[in-house]
Amino acid sequence: GKAEIECDVLVLGAGPGGYSAAFRAADLGMKTVLVERYDTLGGVCLNVGCIPSKALLHTASVVDEVKHLPDHGISFGAPQIDLGKLRAFKDGVIKKLTGGLAGMAKARKVEVVTGVGAFLDPHHLEVAVAGGKKTIRFAKAIIAAGSEAVKLPFLPEDPRIVDSTGALELKSIPKRMLVIGGGIIGLEMATVYSTLGVRIDVVEMLDGLMQGADRDLVKVWDKMNTHRFDKVMLKTKTVGGKATEAGIEVSFEGEQAPAGPQLYDLVLVSVGRSPNGKKIGADKAGVAVTDRGFIDVDRQMRTNVAHIFAIGDVVGQPMLAHKAVHEGHVAAEVAHGEKSYFDARQIPSVAYTDPEVAWAGKTEEQCKAEGIKFGKAVFPWAASGRAIANGRDEGFTKLLFDTTTHRVIGGGIVGTHAGDLISEICLAIEMGCEPADIGKTIHPHPTLGESIGMAAEVFEGHCTDLP
Ligand code: FAD
């Protein structure tokens, strides 16, 4: 039959990748349809990811900050937690942002179709909408179907075993919690729950938490966070779980496995995310999907089918919102006929823990693995007036330079607000800055941001803020 909806560009999935692509496409004058299975736009990031986690982490950081105030001569009582209100604060944040997106879609005349979409052929998508089906005929399509949390098949179905979405629901405050997987998502949730008073164990298969970041950064985080954990079990696997009345009985194997099973009130499984590429009928459109569910694309975000693009988590690592957004813009522009490319020199990573850990460009580990000749400069925050005034001078700022080209190729920051501070290093890498470009840039005093200029001066051998 005839398609009910015709469009220039169909975007499947309304996460950061999808809505960014749809909005750019509409701004370029294309008739754009955005298909999303959930009632709100924003995908994982706004509804159950970046944003709600940061709302709770903000709250946690204020609570933790206040704990230091007795040292400044100011004391408060123990925190009283109203979980319902905390949840309402977080939900309010989400609503404000997703509501904003709905308004932005409307203003651009992006047609939003709510329902589960699947390709019928290279030019049609069928959407299972409330009470029926809709067929959309498209000239071009952008797949932005995202990813979902990986499950551990040997754990039982039980409301006390959750993924990040379940943990963000904040149904109750457990006494003992197990975090399976010591990556960014797991550690962010561990930060929130531990501040709420929960005793936490973390189990990680590899030999360190927060993989991907240089160990010198993580070491500072480690030291500041020992108080949050009863046990951090490295090189250890979770091998079984039994739901009992008393709790979830979890057993472990490996180097730091405890002698017997351990009992938890809440188990968070944060062992990675898997792409949704296999769930959208991609084969009917002729789009190739890898065994793991990723969709391979070229630098213009084209799949193997020239008029179908893919962006965001579904095309691969790093699974981050800011990467998805930039890819979305490229896909929309190329669909419009422009010569755009995704050509990022760096994609920053941030753990919004306490302290925050942020890194961009090459890590030292990568430089070593790739045989890059590099020089490194570190500015310790113990020499930063602002960090000392904040009572938080445990951090440091690190810059990595290619010693052949003299350009900055990477950097990392551990300390409060590291995630906000890393942007300057991102720009420096993209612009191919040399140490003098950063060191001779006048940074405001006294700020944590100064530490980036000072690290550059350290590299040049004339930092006057260090002994
Ligand atoms: P998604 O956001 O996954 O959106 C895909 C959308 O497609 C979803 O809304 C889904 O419902 C829809 N969809 C899929 N299939 C269909 C279908 N067949 N029909 C209709 N709709 C469909 N990233 C950061 O950069 N910073 C952070 O601080 C951060 N924190 C995170 C915290 C948590 C707890 C989690 C889980 C993730 C976090 N991320 C963070 C990762 C970030 O959320 C993702 O990288 C980002 O959402 C990916 O965007 P996307 O557009 O590719 O896909």
TrEMBL record:
Single GO BP term: 2-oxoglutarate metabolic process
Residues where NAD(+) binds: G181, G182, G183, I184, I185, G186, L187, E188, E204, G272
Domain of life of the source: Bacteria
GO molecular function, one term: flavin adenine dinucleotide binding
Keywords: Disulfide bond, FAD, Flavoprotein, Lipoyl, NAD, Nucleotide-binding, Oxidoreductase, Redox-active center
Active site (catalytic residues): H445
Disulfide bonding pattern of the chain: C45-C50
Binding site for FAD: K54, G117, D313, M319, L320, A321, H322
Catalytic activity: N(6)-[(R)-dihydrolipoyl]-L-lysyl-[protein] + NAD(+) = N(6)-[(R)-lipoyl]-L-lysyl-[protein] + NADH + H(+)
Coiled coil: none
Co-factor note (free text): Binds 1 FAD per subunit.
Note: The active site is a redox-active disulfide bond.
Family: Belongs to the class-I pyridine nucleotide-disulfide oxidoreductase family.
Protein name: Dihydrolipoyl dehydrogenase
Organism annotation: Bradyrhizobium septentrionale
Lineage: Bacteria, Pseudomonadati, Pseudomonadota, Alphaproteobacteria, Hyphomicrobiales
Gene for this chain: lpdA
Full-sequence range covered: 112 to 578 of 583
